Amino acid sequence: MKASVASISKDEFLEGQILLLDKPLNWTSFQAVNSVKWTIRKKFSLKKIKVGHAGTLDPLATGLLVVCTGKFTKKIADLQGQLKEYTGTITLGATTPSYDLETEVQEIMSTDQLTNQEIIEATHLFKGVIQQKPPLFSALKKDGKRLYEYAREGSEVDIPSREVEIFNFEISAINMPTVDFRIVCSKGTYIRSLAHDFGKALGVGGYLSALRRTKIGEYNVDNAVDPTIFRTLLLEE
Question: Does residue 11 carry a catalytic annotation?
Answer without folding.
Answer: no
